[in-house]
Amino acid sequence: MPRFLHTADWQIGRLYTSFAADDAVPLAEARLRAVETVARLATEHAVDAVLVAGDVFDAQTVAERTIRRLFNALSGFAGPWLMIPGNHDAALAESVWTRAMRLRALPANLHLALTPATLPFPDLGFTALMAPLTQRHTFDDLTAWFDAAPAPDGHLRIGVAHGSVQGILAEDIDSPNPIAPDRAARARLDYLALGDWHGCKSIDARTWYSGTPEPDRFRGNEPGFALLVEIDAPGAEPRVTRLAIGQYQWRASEVVIHVPSDIEGLCERLAQSSASDVLDLRVSGESDLAGLQRLRAAIADAEARARSVQADLADLRLAPTAEDIAALEADGYLGEVIEDLRERQARDAPGAVLTGPALAVSDKVLRESATTARDALALLAGILAERRGVEAAS
Fold first, then answer.
1. In whole angstroms, what is the distance from residue 47 CA to residue 63 CA?
2. DSSP string of 237-268?
3. How far is 207 from 204, CA to CA, in rounded Å?
4. What is the pTM of this model?
5. How far apart are CA 275 and CA 297, in angstroms?
6. Which is more confident, 275 or 330?
């Protein structure tokens, strides 16, 4: 019974430029660890071959050390690796693949198709039909030739391709490279291993996207897997099992604060964060001073536990209560400054009703002004509260 491990979209060498360096480096390293895990699982499940459906590298310009490290990561599985380029690492005349060849980095058990190829494996009982991308974007279906491709009698017909199944996937995926939704049926494929969509997705019983083995964006489309594919005989329906691989869990949240209990609920959620979390938090609504201080403390605590926390509080309006202001014991000039900041934050909030010259001010400028006023108010209130605490302790 032939058995395969299907994976894709490793995008080795990706730079996480929107993250701080101490988060970006571990996230990039996790992609290499994912490949090592793929190799280990291939050995554990005694698969006949690993099918790698494109976008092995994130760009043509990755460092030589990165190229060597990637191919070293394959060493955990001694069987055949079947690999094609995708849109990020297309097989151009000069590419990351030609560089890898010059470096002599390709292992002997790697079957790399830089042009359309039929690869028979008589001892293993299957023939692979490989459809690499030789340019970043194409508007032709590069799997069309599968329909007439010969294979020995009794062989499984396995397709490996990278692109967008037409009429099924979202419009904003990485590549326009089209693939007919019924290609497996047309080409009499026992299995079609696809790459490009970063989530694990079944198109039909014989056509699957494995998704990226290590999550890399805030999109809930089930990344973080490789697929174990078992096929009893030619024509039999594949049995596909998801194998969890991803090290980090990317979670995006948009929270609107209406009442103090919303702050408490958000703080409790942040307290559950762990070292495997990559969090993107956007908070809007309104909070009093005490609530804002609790939220900021909870975010700081989460930052110490999670792999990464990106928190955007720009749309959270600070609305100090009368008790907040009274507790600061700010009178005279400081009291006037606090009141002025409160007024500026309310006046310049996006969507506020404007009159006169203010009508010409863009919503972006107003948002920045309101954010500055809120942050200044929170900073001043924090300083006053801290000073009052010091004085009370002395």
1. 31
2. PPEEEEEE--S-EEEEEEEEE-SHHHHHHHHH
3. 5
4. 0.83
5. 18
6. 275
Backbone phi, psi, residue 236, to 5°: -75, 145
Got the DSSP string for 203-238? Answer: EETTEEE---SS--SS--S--SEEEEEE-SSTTSPP
Query: How does strand 3-7 pair with strand 225-230?
Result: antiparallel
Q: Closest Cα to residue 287, out of 264, 303, 270, 269?
A: 264
Q: What pLDDT is stored for residue 387 in this prediction?
A: 61
Q: Which of helix, strand or coil describes residue 36?
A: helix
Cα–Cα dist 298/280, whole Å: 14
Quote the distance between the C-alpha of residue 383 and its chain's center.
Answer: 39
Question: Which residue from 25, 115, 41, 30 is spatially nearest to 74, judged by alpha carbons?
Answer: 41
CA-based R_g, the chain, Å: 27
Return the structure tokens found at 379: 């900073």
| 284 vs 370: CA distance, rounded Å | 13
Token code pair at residue 39 = 């190799």
For the chain, which residues make up each domain, given as ranges? 3-244, 249-319, 322-394
3 state SS of 177 = coil
- Which one is predicted more confidently, 344 or 291? 291
- pLDDT of 350 reads 53
What is the pLDDT averaged over residues 269-291?
A: 94
DSSP states along 147-171: GG----TT-EEEEEEESEETTTS-T
Say whether 87 sits in a helix, a strand or coil: coil
Residue 224 CB partners (closer than 8 Å, separation 6+): 200, 211, 212, 213, 214, 215, 244, 245, 246, 249
Closest C-alpha to 55, from 27, 107, 95: 95
Q: Which two tokens stand for residue 101?
A: 């060849």
DSSP string covering 109-150: TEEE-SS-EEEEETTTTEEEEEE--SSS--SS-TTGGGGG--
Q: How many CB atoms lie within 10 A of CB 203?
A: 19
Query: 3-244 belongs to which homologous superfamily?
Result: Metallo-dependent phosphatases (3.60.21.10)
Tokens 């596909």 -> residue: 240
For residues 263 and 268, give the distance between their C-alpha atoms in angstroms, rounded to a whole number: 9
